Protein 1
Amino acid sequence: MAPPPDPPRTVLFICIGNAGRSLMAEAMFNAAPPDGWRAISGGVRPAPAPNERTGPMLAEIGLTLPDHAPQLVTNEQMDRASLRVTMGCLDDASCPARLKKLELRDWGLPDPAKLDDAGFRRVRDQLRQRVEGLRAEIELERRRSAARSSPTPP
């Protein structure tokens, strides 16, 4: 009998309210995740609901909101994530000190809730470019790792 498959590796997208940027990043990543990967998202102070423009802005590019309400990012999620990407919450007083001590990437994107529709779209499009870059980086590392572990032909 074959061994069970490894659990998927996780990208954790984190922002303040989990109402805009991190939800969009999760939806974008999970639309075409690299093999063996998935994304989840959370906020350090979750909003009661997604920003009213997040769903329509995703729909404009053919995506839908994740099937969860804004949620609190947990210590367990932070510890188990293979990659952690913050959207700019590191300068917020509510950002957990624990998160600041972990290896992560900060994309430092503005909160689209404070922007007009054109600004919201710019943030969405920047997210899409960064998520595509992250996917490409993960795929490149997978290929490099596979090449290192492949036996050399005689």
Protein 2
Amino acid sequence: MIVVHTTFPSCKQAEKAARLLVQQRLAACASVYPCKSFFFWEGRLQEEREFVLELKTQEWRYPALERAILKIHPYSLPQVFAFKVHRSAPAYRNWVKSCTGQRPAGSSAGRRNSR
């Protein structure tokens, strides 16, 4: 299981993305919460109120989830990254799997080469 993290400039945009990504079963759960971000952009220190979109999904779902986020995101360079969950309640992990589906047979997305 992984947690995917991105931010949006408005709560409305983050919530719209959350609904879409969960409806598409790319994520089992989405949480939206406000934050204040500080970052360099175009050579200047910026300070913006943003809304974090946190998505819980399976690791093999990441490529499709990232593509979907990048397709709908209003920023030219959105942050999109994932944290691997090392421990979780087994029932919650099973629920995430049940919501996001089984890896298609023959799919190697998310697998590592054993060379």
Protein 3
Amino acid sequence: MEQVKTNTTTATQDTSEGIAQVGMGVTLAAAGVIGLWGVSCFVGALAQNGVLAMAQGWLTAVGG
């Protein structure tokens, strides 16, 4: 048997790979934005309440 590789198959594979890369890029960009937002919220809470109040609030939230 002889296998024949057509241009259509190659183009479909290249397109699928490109779409997957764009999807991964969008996911990583969203994760980066979410991470930056979390860090900024944490820094803002530290600046407003201080380290001891943050630790007390965390212990209250976890321990009840």
